[in-house]
Amino acid sequence: MRIAVLVSGNGSNLQALIDAQHDKQLSGQIVGVLSNKADAYALRRAEDANIATAVISHQNFPNRESFDVAMHQQLLAWQVDLVILAGFMRILTPNFVSQWQGKMLNIHPSLLPFYKGMNTHQRVLNTGDRLHGCTVHFVTAELDAGQSIAQSVIQVSLQDTAESLAQRVHQLEHFIYPQVAQWLCNGQLTWENGQAYFNQKLLEKPIQFAQF
Ligand code: GRF
């Protein structure tokens, strides 16, 4: 599997994927890292790992459609099989998403379907939830609404702040994201007719990783 990772920022999840590939926990090959921001630290991580990079700034395009077409062309040039969104902060157009159906993953810092969108950690604290975590899901046109594949849960403590939650959830992310990517690479996870299958069985609810 030839993998492209789309980033906008720090890229700690990208690093986890690079490390997993290096440690042979990920059998796919990350062939390119695409950022919409030239100053994303994730690009440095890719360069340090000798991975091709591309910067396609959304600001250079008149609309989302033309930006997505440019991204799509880059992915085709890299001959990508699997697209992994790792802190990529742009909303994708339905046309782009439909071309990567069942081949594009995202990780979101909440227990979806709760807390789609931004500022998830603060919103969890505001509500007083006792459980929080992250979700890996297939990407569909609706934001953070594609079928969830795997989740990992933490207990929120009274001492937690948005920062501490972000840190704790990141740790979970770095564990589950390479694992789910590997399931797609080795064929344990598949997508047929708009449905996820795990070990050839319909995936009815997200796979739960052990609590930290
Ligand atoms: C992660 O929290 C991820 O869940 C969200 O964006 C953040 C990216 O962090 N989609 P990083 O750039 O991988 O460190």
From TrEMBL:
Residues annotated to bind N(1)-(5-phospho-beta-D-ribosyl)glycinamide: 11-13
Site (Raises pKa of active site His): 144
One GO MF term attached to the UniProt entry: phosphoribosylglycinamide formyltransferase activity
Record-annotated Formyl transferase N-terminal domain positions: 1-180
Database matches in PROSITE patterns: GART (PS00373)
Catalytic activity: N(1)-(5-phospho-beta-D-ribosyl)glycinamide + (6R)-10-formyltetrahydrofolate = N(2)-formyl-N(1)-(5-phospho-beta-D-ribosyl)glycinamide + (6S)-5,6,7,8-tetrahydrofolate + H(+)
Top-level division of the source organism's lineage: Bacteria
Pfam family, one: Formyl_trans_N
Active site: 108 (proton donor)
Pathway stated in the Swiss-Prot or TrEMBL entry: Purine metabolism; IMP biosynthesis via de novo pathway; N(2)-formyl-N(1)-(5-phospho-D-ribosyl)glycinamide from N(1)-(5-phospho-D-ribosyl)glycinamide (10-formyl THF route): step 1/1
SUPFAM superfamilies in UniProt: Formyltransferase (SSF53328)
Gene Ontology BP, a term: 'de novo' IMP biosynthetic process
EC number: 2.1.2.2
An annotated GO cellular component: cytosol
Binding site for (6R)-10-formyltetrahydrofolate: 64, 89-92, 106
Assigned keywords, A-Z: Purine biosynthesis, Transferase
UniProt enzyme class: transferase
PANTHER family: PHOSPHORIBOSYLGLYCINAMIDE FORMYLTRANSFERASE (PTHR43369)
Function: Catalyzes the transfer of a formyl group from 10-formyltetrahydrofolate to 5-phospho-ribosyl-glycinamide (GAR), producing 5-phospho-ribosyl-N-formylglycinamide (FGAR) and tetrahydrofolate.
Family note: Belongs to the GART family.
Protein name: Phosphoribosylglycinamide formyltransferase
Species this chain originates from: Acinetobacter parvus DSM 16617 = CIP 108168
